Amino acid sequence: MTTEDKGTAPVEYAPEHTPRMHWTQHAPEVYKAMVRLDAAAGQGLDARLRELVKIRASQLNHCAFCLDMHTRDALAAGESVERIVQLSAWEESRHFYTARELAALELTEAVTVLGDGFVPDEVYDRAAKHFGEAELAQLIAAIAVINAWNRFGVATRMVPGHYEPKQHK
Q: Which region among 3-12, 59-68, 141-150, 155-164 has the lowest average model confidence (pLDDT)?
C-alpha cells in the first residue's frame, strides 16, 4: 500500500497479511448463530455503550479486525473520536466517560481478562449499581459475545481495513 501527501514522498506501508482461513465460509451455521447471538445480546443496550464495550474487549484481545469494525460502527452511531482514542487508557481519562460507562468498561475488562479466574465482587457490584438485572445480564452477554468474536478474528487472522459501518447488521 502506498499513499502520497501533498509535498511529501510516497509512503510505503507493510503489505496486508492474508487470513488463515475464511471461517465463515467453512462454518456458516456457526457464523449465523453468532450473528443471532450478537443481536440478542445487544438488545436493550445503548448502541454507543455497546460499541465502547466491543472496542475495549477487542483492544484487550488484540483483534485488529474487530477494532476496525467496532470503531467504524461507533463513529457511525455518533461516538466521538476523542472518546474512542481514550479507551485504551480509560482509567487515566475517566473524565471522558459517565459513571455508567466506566462501570461497563471495568466489567468488560474483568470478564475479558479473568485475572484470577473470576470477576471480583466489587467490579460486579459497581456495575449492578448502574444497570438493572435484565440490562446487566444483556451487558454480560454482549461482553461474552465480543470475546467469542475476537477469538474467531485472532485465530483466523481476519484482515482489518475493509469493513463498512453496519455491513454485518
A: 3-12
Q: What is the 3-state secondary structure (H, E, C) of 98-138?
A: CHHHHHHHHHHHHHHHCCCCCCCHHHHHHHHHHCCHHHHHH
Residue 89 host element (H or E): none
Buried b (16+ CB within 10 A) or exposed e, 32-65: eebeebbeebbeebeebbbbbbbbbbbbbbebbb
Q: Comparing C-alpha atoms, which of 65, 52, 71, 58 is closest to residue 16?
A: 65
User: CB under 8 Å to 1, separation ≥6 — which residues?
Assistant: 12, 13, 15, 16
Q: Give pLDDT, residue 20.
A: 85
Only one residue has cell 462501570, namely: 103
- How confident is the model over 120-142, as a mean pLDDT? 97
11 φ/ψ angles, rounded to the nearest 5 degrees:
-110, 130
Cα–Cα dist 10/65, whole Å: 26
- Written in H, E and C, the secondary structure of 13-74 is CCCCCCCCCCHHHHCHHHHHHHHHHHHHHHCCCCHHHHHHHHHHHHHHHCCHHHHHHHHHHH
